[in-house]
Amino acid sequence: MMQININTKITGDTKETPVQKAVKALERDIKNTCKDTTEPGLEIKLVSNAHDAASEVFTIDRNEDNLTITSACSLGLIYGIYHVSREFLGVQNFWFWNEQELTKESEHIVPDNYHYESKPSKVRFRGWFINDEVLFDGWREKVGENFPWEMAFEALLRCGGNMTIPGTDHNSHRYKDLANDYGLWITHHHAEPLGAQMFARAYPDLEASFNKHPDLFRGLWQQAIEDQKSCKVVWNLGFRGQGDRPFWADDPTYDTPKARGKLMSELILEQYNLVKESDKDAVCCTNLYGETMELYKDGYLTFPSDVIKIWADNGFGKMVSRRQNNHNPRVYALPHEGDNSAHGIYYHASFYDLQAAAMMTMLPNSPEFVVNELKDVYAHGVDDFWIINCSNVKPHTYYLDLIAKMWSGNEGDCSNTDEIKSLDAQKYEIEHIQDYVKKYYGDVTAPDLTSRIEDAYREWPKCTPKYGPNEDDHAGEQFSNHGARILTCGFISNFNKLDPAHTKSIPELNWICKRDTLLEQVKWHEEKYKEALDAYTKYLADCNKIKEDLIAKGSLKAAERFDNTLICQVQYHYYSYLGAYHICRAILTCLDDKKEGGKFIDVLEEGANGKPVDYLTAFYEAGLAKKEFFEGYETMRSYEHDIWEGFYENDCEADIRQSGFVAESLMSYLRVLGDGPHFYKWQRKFQKESGGEKVHLILRIKAHLTDDELWNLMTR
Questions:
Q1: 70 by DSSP, 3-state: which?
Q2: CA 686 to chain CA mean position, Å
Q3: Contact between residue 160 and residue 404 where contact means Cβ atoms under 8 Å apart
Q4: Which of 237, 359, 338, 421 is nearest to 653 (CA)?
Q5: Helices (H) and strands (E) in the chain — how many of each?
Q6: How do residues 132-151 score in pLDDT, each as one tens digit?
Q7: What residues contact residue 357 under an 8 Å CB cut-off, 6+ apart?
């Protein structure tokens, strides 16, 4: 009997562009998983049955010589195609992003009388916001303009998604047609209502004030509607300021919650009417995000009853309002019980906040925590719209896979309210880890190593440092990188040479560590960084041992995959916290008058009451910080290989390399304090041939050393 093999053909209703793209993907999967043979292949036949064009379900039936996929719409056919790829060819949803090793077989067996009938997804609109996609922006120059987005859209469809915000700012406009070609609904960033161009971009010389330029704003909205007429759109309504902030930051005329809510309500209604004039059946939504949710909760914001209200987590997976700078009201972000109107969520698998978020690495909170939050989301009837911030996809596949299971609800766990309430989040996490490792490390030959890989994934949230009293107060890589840079800049800007211990504190850190002096803030950070460093040092050693054992037992590809997907993220944290820890030690050497001098003590300046300040040891510690940050950057770049060449090049938001540059600036500043203005005393201490410590020839035979040259002499 015929089976799926290299000669399998895909026939039937393939005229629609989104279906054609899925067919090409399946043809590629067949090529990647089938050996050459002369045997005829099982035909895969696509059949459109348009009795209910709104339904995305599909059926698959095996006949003697064909496998028939039937659905009422193109998305259903696409889901059926990817079901075949996953079920029979073994190509997993994140095969590309997780670098799955695909093996070729002579044929892939489809059982006699095979029948599969999918169930409707629990969430009506579900998809990814490709946001802060800075790694895509650099990588596409190597792999092609559309390639990163094509692979993201394919993975989203494989996960059962049907909607996307196809990038941030310029990218959302550039890739909307491509997303439409993949069959996805388009929706919009909350800073770009209706997907319109930002006013400040369209009119850079004008003040972004609706009061002053109402017709120009309306023109941008109308143009956006015209530009998206060929797309399926969930229209996002709202009014925020330029650059994703409150609009009153640009227009201080609105100085009360009542005035702000009144304008927003009026403009949302106006946008709603514009959309409905174009399409009476249009679906509309609005984001209750940040300051907008506070206005809504306080009764200052209203909109039409059929608009989907999108509630947002705080960037760390908790359904409360996000922290903005030092303001953190943590307003509960789900509808009141009994509110049966349409609701959705904007949920972060990745986040960027210049404080403690994770974008280059996985969410710092546990899968169990995420499942419990999403259970609560379901319990409040929020199943009309889920948009998940997926950032650059690759670092976040573990959590994206978990969330996709939750939005589908096709395993019985989320199919009705009673099952949601009884869902055991801890058990769900365990089963997800086992399933995930089985799918992507199925080639591991030793069962004990499989369980150790599972343990390694379980360890991830346990190592993330806890910085506050709330259950979600666990930090990502921005805590170490932005934190170290803030401390350094605050020290350089405010250092009190005459009374170092009373150097003033940094208000920007009040959200996490409000103290009277910088000394107290640095001590607090040093302790947190040291705790994290100890945890990641052990975690990295454990992961490297797993990798070594995988190699020793012949699972070379699995070892490489483990390295490229998990170890690389652990290393990013390890080097970030190691660098940040040395930044703290450098600054404390200057601030703490109770701290004994280091091994390089060379007192050239006096602080309050004649107490010494050991700038030389501080310089050395800053050099260690620079070394570790740059080593972390080089280690990250070492994971670029083959198709991934250039993927990490544009790390610009956590930006571990920039942390190294800031540490370098700290070195220079400390050398100015301790060795300036003539810059010969430290050099004479370490470069003996320039005259030595005893003979003061003031560099008559040697030129000045650079900071790096001097530091390298100190390390000998």
A1: strand
A2: 45
A3: yes
A4: 359
A5: 24, 13
A6: 999 999 899 999 999 999 99
A7: 315, 316, 350, 351, 476, 478
